[in-house]
Every structure is written in C-alpha cells, then in structure tokens.
Amino acid sequence: MGKRLAYSIGGIALVFAVWFIFYITVKNSVIVPSPTFTIKKVGELFTEKFFYSALFSTLLRVVIAFLISAIFAVITASFAYKFNAFANVFGAIVSVMRSLPTLAVLLIILVKVKRTEAPVYVCFLTLFPLLYTAVYSSLKSINTDLEDMCKVYKTPVIKKVRYLYIPSLFPKLYLDFSSAFSFGLKLTVSAEILASVYGSVGGAMQEAAIYDTVMLFALTLVVCVIGIIIEFIGKFAFDIVESKRK
Amino acid sequence: MKIENLTVRYGENVVLNGINLEVLDGEITCVLGSSGVGKTTLLKAVSKLIKYEGFIEDKSVSFVFQSPALIDGITLFQNLKLACDDEEKIEKGLIDFSLLDKKDCYPKTLSGGEKQRVNLLRAFLSSGEVMLLDEPFSSLDIKTKISIINYFISAWQKDKKATLFVTHDIDEALAVAGRIIILKEGVVALDMKIDGDYPREYFGDSDKRKMLLSRLI
Q1: Count of domains observed in chain B
Q2: Which residues pair with B8 in a beta bridge?
Q3: In what order do the strands lie in the sheet containing B2-10?
Q4: For residues A227 and A182, is the Cβ–Cβ distance under 8 A?
Q5: B55 in helix, strand or coil?
Q6: Residue B81 domain boundaries
Q7: How far is the CA of A3 from the CAs of A103, A179, A224, A243, B109, in angstroms?
Q8: Chain segment A173-194, per-residue pLDDT in tens
Q9: For B71-77, what is the mean pLDDT?
Q10: For B80, which residue in chain A has the nearest alpha carbon?
Q11: Cα(B183)–Cα(B212) distance, rounded to whole angstroms?
C-alpha cells in the first residue's frame, strides 16, 4: 500500500513537473498558466458557492447515467447469458452502440432533449455497452461445473446469486464498474462543455475558456482530482473486501 | 436406477448408442472406458444436465465432479451449505473427512486432495438417492488418491447408496467397484461382477487387471 502510494505521488509530481516545464518554455500564462496560480485558483474555487452547485449538478448527472447504465447492463446481460438468441440480437445492438461517434450523437440528442439532460444520455450511451460487455463476459467466464453443481443440488436462486454469481463476478466487475464511473465523469463534463450546460462544471469550463485560462485549468484539475479520488476510494474499498475474503 | 436405450448425440455424432444399465442399491457400479468414449456424457444425461433419448428412471442424484467445482469466493462450510442445510450433519461430515480445521478456509487455500475431499463430502451430505462420480481422483498423485479412496469407501459403507462411478483407471475401478462395465464405441462392451470386501488393496488383483486391460484396448 505504502509503495503504491509513493508511486502514485511520484506520477502526479511528474505531471506537475512537465506542466511547469511547459509553463516556463511557452512563457505565456494565457496559453499555459502557472501550476502554482492554478492551485491557488482551485483553493479559491472551494470558497465559491457556484462551484459547489456546478459540481453537484455534474456529479448528479454522472450518478444517474451510471446507475441507469449499470442496472440496464446487469438485466440485459443476465438475459443474454440465459438465452442465446437474446445474446446474439443484443450483441449486435451493443456493437452498434459502441461504434457510435459520441459527439455526433450529442448533436442529434440536443435537437430533441434539454441541454441539461443531454450529457446523461451521452454518458448512458457510452457506458452501457462497456458495462454490458463486462457483465456478459464475466457471466460467461463462470465455470460450467459450478453451474451444473447448482443444478444438481437444486440450489435456490437466491443462494445461487449470493454464493455463486456475486462472489464470482464481484472482483472483476467492481474494478470495471469503478473505472467506468470515473470515465463517466470525464464523458459527462465533455458533453456539458459541448452542450453549454449552464451551472455545471463543463459549462463553467466553456465560459472560462473564453476569458480565464487559469480558471479553465483549475476546473480541469478539480475534475482530474475527483476522478483520481473516486478510483482511489474504489480500490481502497476493494482491497479491504478482498483482504477479508482471504 | 434403470437406464434403458439411452442415446446421446452431439450434432451428427452419436456418443452413447442405446445403453441399457441398472445401478443397484448397495453397489458401486464402475464404468470404465478410455477418454472420449462418453463416460462424462453418461453421467450428465443421468443427472439431466444434457438432452438425451431413451428412458432414465427419475431419481435425485448427487454429483462428484472431475474438478472440485468449489466456489472460490466463499468458505468451505458455505460451499457445503449449497448441498445441505443441516449444519450439524455438515460438522459431522467435516470430522469424518478430516476437514474440520479447514471449515472457514477459502478453497484457494486448500490442497488438491483437500478440495477433492470437500467435493466428495458435498455429495455424501446431499440427499440424492444415486451418487454419480466423474473421475474424481484422476488429477491426484497416487498417495493422495489411495488416501481419498479410503475416505470414500468408509463414507459410502455407511448407507451404501446406489453409485455410478466413471473412470479410465483400471486399478481405481478394481479398488472401488462391485460391478465393472466397459464402455466402448458408445455401447456396453462388458458387464462383470467384482467380489471382495472393502477396503481393497490398490494394485491388488493382477489377473483381473490384465483381463480388463485386454477388453478395454
């Protein structure tokens, strides 16, 4: 754990060092602002009310899109696992969804849907195929002897879910789901920028891009840090659960 | 358990071709055959895990898989609870199979022999009327194999359930079987009674071994 933390801190320090070198080389704080000014600006952001409401609305969109994607992915992948015909049909649909160009989809969605809702749709359309594939391939990787064992011993469905599916799927799916969540944050912010969603982190970034580069970098830094924190909490919780299972 | 005219096809390929067989109470019926002859297919048909043609008497079964078929994410005790709800019975079984101190361990911490003992114990704990064993000792070294055969025989002798045991190992068959059936090209090629009290010596009867080998090849 200590070693891993040291490597992470080293990686972050390297990013800041590269940023600082760019800052010195470019010598134009409108194009590349100073890392120290940017960090100060992040500090200031946390004293402003608008920032909290923007952050809350962005995170709420991510959570909604993630939950819908996750629930839908688990249900459809379970059906696909049980019924081959459904797997073939849904496999094709998911392939199409996976190849959709995100930005073009956003533009189409914006014709019909409110700006504030469009990022949720975009996030869902991107996360769902990822999560569906993760759940379906994990279910497929369950040892067929274990399935047969449950059939032979007439294991009730609840016991089967609790003792077979959850323990077999948990380790892989937990990691897939937690990286999908932080990917969802990135996607939602991008969609908010393109859709100019007022009162969101993405919207604030778009406004800042016009007149305040330091603010743009500060907001970007905040999004990165939140993504890292989410992944860190995810991995930390995972390690605790896994260590209890050993 | 009566099995009449059992046929199993995988596409065009006929794996079992009209097998007639009776698995009797108080006897271990051992099906001997080389790899790919349809031994596992026979057990899967008997336990209704695959489609088949013909008649199989409807009886509940317990199954000892070739691989231990234990769920890694739960403890040994929880694995056993999938087949039996009676915790007292499980505790007794754990003592009989010398596994009591491993009860709260996860399968990945057990040795191959211990896992296979759990696999066997689970079948004995289940209320199935017929016990099916699919080459349960094939992946074990000879010392562990002999030790586990002894566990199996002493547990089996308590209620002497009708048992169908498949293997490709003649010595294993001679050590456990009350009757040996040789399966060849999808049909029964030999059906013979084996006498002798348990426990038997592994590598015991060399004459029977030679005869079975000649029929098997």
Answers
A1: 1
A2: B16
A3: B13-22, B2-10, B53-56
A4: yes
A5: strand
A6: 2-216
A7: 40, 22, 22, 17, 26
A8: 888 888 899 899 999 999 999 8
A9: 86
A10: A153
A11: 12
With CB atoms and an 8 Å threshold, state whether B71 touches A168: yes
Question: Which tokens sit at A242?
Answer: 């896994």
Beta strand extents in A78-192 (DSSP E only): none
User: Which position has the token pair 């013979």?
Assistant: B192
Give which of A153, A159, A168, A242 to mutate to test B binding, by max B Cβ within 10 Å: A153
CA dihedral B161, B166, B169, B172 (to 10 degrees): -10
Radius of gyration of chain A measured on its C-alpha atoms: 22
Q: Closest approach of chain A CAs to the CA of B43, in angstroms? A: 11
pLDDT > 90? residue A6: no
Q: How far is CA B11 from the centre of its chain?
A: 27
Q: Would you say A33 and A16 are in contact if contact means Cβ atoms under 8 Å apart? A: no
Whether B69 and A143 lie within 8 Å, measured CB to CB: yes
Q: What is the ipTM of this complex?
A: 0.82
Residue A79: exposure state from Cβ atoms within 10 A (0-12, 13-18, ≥19): middle
State whether A159 and B82 contact (CB < 8 Å). Answer: yes
How buried is A232 (Cβ within 10 angstroms: 0-12 exposed, 13-18 middle, 19+ buried)? middle
Residue A177 tokens, joined? 């789901």
First-to-final CA distance of chain B: 28
Backbone phi, psi, residue A234, to 5°: -55, -50
Cβ of residue B126 closer than 8 Å to a chain A Cβ: yes
CA separation for the pair A131, A177 (Å, rounded): 7
Contact list in A for residue B134 (CB cut-off 8 A) is: none
Q: Where do we find the tokens 């998911």?
A: A94
The C-alpha of B170 sits at a distance from chain A's nearest C-alpha, in angstroms, of 25
Amino acid (1-letter code) at residue B148: I
Partner-chain residue, chosen from B47, B63, B74, that has the shortest CB–CB distance to A163: B74
Q: What is the pLDDT of residues B33-65, one digit of tens each?
A: 888 888 999 999 999 999 999 999 889 899 998
pLDDT at B200: 77
Tokens of A204: 């604030």
- Nearest Cβ partner for A167 among B63, B74, B109: B74
**Cβ–Cβ under 8 Å, residues B28 and B177:** yes
What span, in angstroms and rounded, lies between the C-alpha atoms of B203 and B185?
27
Residue A82 contacts B where some CB pair is shorter than 8 Å? no
Task: Give helix then strand counts, H and E, for chain B.
Answer: 7, 9
Q: Pull the structure tokens for residue B118.
A: 């759990």
Q: Does B192 touch chain A (CB under 8 A)?
A: no
Interchain CB contacts (distance < 8 Å): A and B: 58
